[in-house]
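Q: I'm writing up a methods section and want to include an example of the input and output format. Could you take the sequence below and give the corresponding predicted C-alpha cells, formatted cleanly so I can copy it straight into the document?
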Amino acid sequence: MPMAARHTLQFVLVVVTACLVGGLVSTAAAQTAAPPPTAGSQPAAVVPDSFVIGPEDVLGVVFWREPDLSGDVTVRPDGRISLPVIGELEAAGLTPNVLRERVQTAAAKYLTEVNVAVVVRQINSRKIFVTGEVATPGTYPLTAPRTVMQAIALAGGLTEFADAKNITVLRTQGGRAQSFKFNYRDVSKGKGLEQNIQLEPGDTVVVP
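A: Here is the clean output for your methods example:
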C-alpha cells in the first residue's frame, strides 16, 4: 500500500475511534446526570385549575434526597393521609400547593433540609353518575368541564327505551337537594341550550 494511502487510512481510523469514544462518554454522562425514576410511581394526572383534594385521590409525596419518606398515598374517607415519620395530616379540601406547604412545615421538625413536592397521581374524588336508560350506566371521573350532553355521550348514549324529554340532573349543594330538567331532543336540535348545564362533582344524571 502506498505511504499516502496508509496515512489517510490511519487518520480515518483515529477520527472514527474518537467519535465512538466521545459518544459513549456523552451517553454515560447523560445517564449519570438524569435522576432515576421512582419505582412504581404513576404519572401525574391532569389537574383542573379549581381542583381541591378529596377522598380517594392518590397523591405522590416526594422528598428530595429522602426516598424512604417518599411515596404515593391515598386520601382516606376521613380526608387524611398518613406519611412516614410525619404521621397524619389533613388533605381533603386543600389544593396541592397548600398541602405541600403543610407537609414541608411538618417535616421541618424532623429534617434539616426539606424540599418536598406533592403530585396528584389520580383524581378519584371528582365523580359524576349516569344512571337509567343509557348504554353504560355508571360512575365517571370529572377531571375536566363536562356538560349533561357530554356525560350522556360518555355513557354510550341513550337506549331506545329512554324518555329523552324528561332527563333529570340531581345535585346536592350546601345540604340542599336540587334538580334540573334536561330535554335531550331539544338540546340535540339546538333548542333550550341553557338546559345543557355544566356538571359538578357528585351530580347524578337520571335517564328514565
